[in-house]
Amino acid sequence: MKYQHSKEESAEYLRRALPLMSGQNAAFHPVSYAVWYEYVAGMNTRLSETLGDLLARKGKLDEHDIVKLFECHVADVSDESASSFASGFQRILGEISQSTGVASQAAGVFNKTLLRMSQGDALRNPENFAQLLAGTQSMQASVATLNKRLESSQSEIETLRAEITRAREASLTDSLTGLANRRGFDQALADCLAHSRDTAPEGPCLLMCDIDHFKKINDTYGHVFGDKVIHAVASVIKQNIKGRDTAARYGGEEFVVLLPETSLQGAQTLAEQIRGAIERGRIKRGNQDETAARITLSLGIARHLPGESPTQFIERADRALYAAKQGGRNRVSLAAAGQG
Hints:
By secondary structure, the protein is of the alpha+beta class. The chain has helices at about 5-20, 30-40, 45-60, 65-75, 80-115, 125-170, 180-200, 215-220, 225-240, 265-280, 310-325; strands at about 205-210, 245-250, 255-260, 295-305, 330-335. It folds into three domains: about 5-75, no CATH class; about 80-170; about 180-335, Reverse transcriptase/Diguanylate cyclase domain (Alpha-Beta Plaits, 2-Layer Sandwich), CATH 3.30.70.270. It has a five-stranded mixed beta sheet, with helices on both faces. Helix 2 (about 30-40) packs across helix 4 (about 65-75), helix 5 (about 80-115) packs antiparallel against helix 6 and helix 8 packs across helix 9 (about 225-240). The longest helix has about 45 residues, at about 125-170.
């Protein structure tokens, strides 16, 4: 799930998130901000439901709750990235606090000046008018400094938010192929099934794909060439999907393609397109003119059934893939009749 809000929208979410953060028994840091940002933005259904249940039961969330929500429903980031975000966020909050303190001090001095001016004949003394003017100017300068710091802080928080987004996307992406990784696919599938009947009354379809005889390819040509084959297959899959479709490297030489708005017949057509493109392709070995033996792909297809869990859905597609392998490879197989 990507952050695609405008600057104005994200500023509004920031305004709404900060009071919620301050009302918990947890520190201010980027992990907490990411959780509350997605909550107030209404962009993460599972997070909102879990967080709402926790609030109803506990009233206030502690540090453990926030970290658990982030790990389960938002994303993983490296310790180095988290440390960098935390230091930047704490620095911004510290500077805001310092500017607010200066403005508060100036307001206190100004208030004392006004009280003194209101007593007796103080207003008849020209020196008191000068003090009043100086106090007014000092107050105005402090408020201006605070406003400037708040504007600057909003920009810096936007930068930190962008860095969190990049780290989050990296944690959901397979580095070799650029497709979603297993975690990214699991999130996409959960979100899809949560809203599947709204977008596709018949349920989404799933392709499970596996490169045929991949171990032999690795043993014959080496792992570097094997990686090249995986990357090439991923590119073909990526070129053939569109819209809300999600392609992922499921593990090793196995891929999955989630089709939220495609009929079973459409999924079969797409699978044949991908299979044919892989079969026709040839991959060169480095700078050599020699090409590898023909690369082929086997695919299994399943359509989601009402009430079916993500695990059951994946298992049926995997059984269809197994049938394609058993049937001779380089073919497409549908899940058993009456089972999607």
